[in-house]
Model the fold of this input.
Amino acid sequence: MRVDREVPDFDRPSLMFRLEDVLKYRLLGERYYGRAVERLDLRGDEMVLDLGCGGGASSRCILRRLGDEGRLICLDTSGNLLGRARRRLAGARNVEFVGEDIRDAGLAEGSVDAVLVFHVIHDIPSRDRGPVALAIGRVMAPGGRLVVVEPTRASHGMSPEEVRHLLSEAGLTEEMSDSSGHHYVGLYRK
Ligand SMILES: C[S@@+](CC[C@H](N)C(=O)[O-])C[C@H]1O[C@@H](n2cnc3c(N)ncnc32)[C@H](O)[C@@H]1O
Done:
């Protein structure tokens, strides 16, 4: 597993982060993640990747939209947060938990139909963002969809232009975007 000092320490999440995580998981899940997950337009039988799934609140929203034929990969470099996701989603049969960086995860090229990246890229050191984006593009199937949501505040976030550049270099085409309200939301297709 890669470790970098620029990355917030998600293996020792702050009290505020943990409180927010519980709130999002127990109360606000659909309200917070539902619109982004809806944009993936899932039929229910896809292979879906929740990249940087954290404690699994967004993953639960994805699982609600998957049938028995669908599969979800919850991928996160934080053992602490992935452990939460694993405990919370323990009853689900069609979930796999991967505690690796996408670059090291060994996912087959073209194997993923839909990807959710929710508040993740801005927390990756600048020099690693391009390689991570390339790895995302590589695992996506032709025609696959990706929804990315990133904060855009100067104090905490990244610019929509940088997200666009990274994903375009990874071979993805932006089909829709919304940059209102200090967030960038983008729907991409490979
Ligand atoms: C701000 S949290 C967001 C978690 C979750 N997506 C949510 O919305 O609650 C960022 C997450 O990205 C994960 N992360 C950061 N870099 C990563 C990488 N290269 N591969 C996988 N996960 C990563 C962190 O461990 C952390 O769980």
Notes: The CA atoms of residues 72 and 140 lie 14 Å apart. The pocket of S-adenosylmethionine is lined by residues 10, 51-54, 57-58, 75-78, 81, 101-102, 118-120, 123-124, 132 (CB under 6 Å).
